[in-house]
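Comment thread on ticket #2218

A.B. wrote:
> Attaching the input chain for the structure job we discussed in standup.
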Amino acid sequence: MTTKHFALLISLILLLIACNKDDDDSGSIEDDRIKEIVRSNKETGVEVARITINYDANNRLTEVTEYDSIAAQNKVLFSVNYDDVIETIAYDEGEFNEKLLVTLENDRTIRREIHAWNFSNWITESISEYSYSDNKLVYSFQTLFTNLIGSEANRAIAFVYENELLTTVNDTIYYDDGLSRSIGKTEIQYDGNSVTELAEYDYYNSGSEEGFILSDKEIFSYDINKIFIDKYENTYSGEEFRGTNEYTISDKGSLLSFLPYDSPYETNFIYEEGKGNFRDIFYSPIDRNLPTPITKSGYNKEKINQNGLDVLLDFYRMFN
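C.D. wrote:
> Ran it. Output below, let me know if you need it in another format.
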C-alpha cells in the first residue's frame, strides 16, 4: 500500500479475516465473523481502543468504526458501498481520505484500485491486476501513479510453487524507460505443510557485484493453541534477534489474542455467529497467497484446527 490509511487497514485485515475456505482466492463468506477488536494495556488491562465491524441484512460489511476509550470518542474509519465494483471509503478526521475499488470476477479478485482525495477530486494512486492458473495466484501487475498524467513505475510479482506449496515470491519493478530491476524476493521453508521459516531478501547492485542479501527472517513454532514467531533482522553485525510475537488460537482456529514483543499493548478479538464478506473487500490476493501460521499451507494440522483466520501479521501497527 502506498498511503497511510489503507496500509494501516491491511495490517488489520491480514490479522482478523475469518474464513472457511482453503488457499484459493475464491469469494468467501465467513462462518464466525469478526465483530470487535479490543486493544488493552498488557500490565493494567485498561482498554485504550475498540474497533467495531458492522454488517447489513445481506451479511455484507457496511462500516468499520473505532472508539477511543481514553478520549471517549467514536469515529468512522471506513464505509462500504456496493455496485459493479465494491467501493470502500477511508476517512481522516471525518473527511474523505482514500478510496479502494475492488472488482470481482467469478468470485475472484481481478483488480484493485486505490485513489486519494485531493481537495475536490479523486486521484489514482495505483492499479493492481491479478492472474490465476490452476486455482493459484501466479502473477500480479501493479501500476504506481505519481500524478495525473504519468506513472512512476510498474511492479510485477511472480509466485513459484513446489508440490502445491508457495516457495518463492519474486518482486520486480519496471520503469517508463523500459529498464527493470529486481526489488527482492521472499523464500518460504516448510516441515510438511507447516511453515518453519520465512525469509525476505533485498536485491543489491554495487556496480562491481550484485545479488540478494537477507533483510528479515521469521521462525515459526507451534504448541497447543499457540503460535510463536521469532523475528530476526539482518544488520552489519549479522542476524539480530528482535523478539517473539505470540498468538493464541481457539479450538476452532480463530485468533483470540495477540501479544507483540515490542508493544505494551495486547489485542483481543471478539466474534459473533453469522456470515460476512470482509476479506473480499480488503484482503488482496497477494496477502491471501503468502503462507502464514493459519493457512492451509502454513499451519500444523495436528496442532491447530484450521477453521478460522487466514493470516497473522502485526496488528499493533494499526495503532502505532
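A.B. wrote:
> Thanks. Noting for the ticket: The chain is about 5% helix and 60% strand.
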